[in-house]
Design brief:
Two copies of one chain form a homodimer. Chain A has 191 residues and is of the alpha+beta class. Chain A has six helices and four strands, in the order βαβαββαααα. Chain A has a four-stranded mixed β-sheet, covered by helices on one side. In chain A, helix 1 runs parallel beside helix 3, helix 1 packs antiparallel against helix 6 and helix 4 packs parallel to helix 6. The longest helix of chain A is centred in the middle third of the chain and has 31 residues. Chain A starts with a strand and ends in a 24-residue tail after the last helix. The model of chain A has no long low-confidence stretch (mean pLDDT 93). Chains A and B meet through helix 3, helix 4 and helix 5 of A and helix 3, helix 4 and helix 5 of B.
């Protein structure tokens, strides 16, 4: 398969899975290579030669060039497909939600999930601000999806894939997904 | 000026300034409206109606629509200009550096700068991991700029603007910019 890409990723990572989902959706053949986050594997010199930032996911293109950062890979794979709105403003809104996801969603929801369900840190030793900030992010998402079916544009876009990744795993981080809007800023349900 | 945009921003914020710099560079007329971060102004209902994420910068387009997230605004303003590489892979590398900036650079360098120089928190009360992670980010940048003059593509792009924003202010966060590569992972100079 001359267009086959290699995805170096961890199957427990939403950031890695979203790359695989996008490749599948746009019909791009891919080969998955497991690289376990937190195992030291991303500090291996061979891996650092691919991604000096020592993070997964990374993809290797058929010509051998590498590309990192999950949402950058999504945009790369999806360019020219219906996953990217053709309207300039709607495309920018898609970028807005994707940057917001990496800055204001993943650092609380994915991190609390990792600490709680994979590092098995007792809940009372986890930074309480992660729950507050994660619930704030979920509330912002719920408000948006109360207005429209999709985060940006008239249909399914890269923004929806990006935000799905860790939202679907939020329960493993102790977040209550049902009616997130009734959870106050202190992380407690308001009724 | 029918194409004039409004920029709601804080002049102390690299994220806000990079939007202004990009507007200026591409010749887009803009009006700056001060919104002080940390003042509660972003929690005002009128502001939340513009950006439910309660963050600056936000721009208002001539037709009244809003757009948030600094790097999404950069991509919006720069589309079709020489700030965006025409090659698909180089454009993706630009996105890669821009997502990396928001995930791995800003949360350590900008946050430590804010705490040290604006909140006046004593240095021994600041999370020591901010210095370690910020120096790691600076080291990755230096390695890249040892190979090429620009982060992505053959010339100046949005990635350079995004990374300039807080790097130029890193000194206010206690980071030593000269020869960052000789600073070890513990944040101390290695000679």
């Amino acid at each position: 398969m001359p267009d086959r890409i290699k995805i170096f990723g961890d199957q427990r990572s939403g950031n890695c899975l979203k790359v695989k989902w996008t490749a599948d959706f746009v019909g791009r053949t891919s080969e998955w290579i497991d690289v376990l986050a937190g195992s030291g594997a991303t500090q291996d010199p061979a891996f650092l030669a691919i991604n000096p930032a020592a993070q997964v996911p990374v993809v290797i293109l058929p010509d051998g060039r590498a590309l990192a950062q999950s949402n950058a890979i999504l945009l790369f794979l999806a360019e020219g497909t219906k996953l990217v709105p053709s309207d300039h403003y709607e495309r920018a809104r898609m970028w807005e939600w994707m940057f917001w996801e990496q800055y204001s969603h993943e650092p609380s929801i994915a991190v609390r999930r990792w600490q709680l369900s994979y590092l098995n840190i007792p809940v009372d030793q986890i930074d309480p601000s992660l729950l507050v900030r994660g619930n704030r992010a979920l509330t912002i998402m719920e408000a948006r999806l109360g207005q429209t079916n999709w985060f940006a544009g008239a249909g399914f876009s890269c923004a929806d894939i990006a935000l799905l990744a860790y939202t679907r795993m939020a329960g493993e981080g102790g977040f209550v997904l049902i009616r997130a809007s009734v959870i106050g800023s202190n992380g407690q349900r308001v009724f």
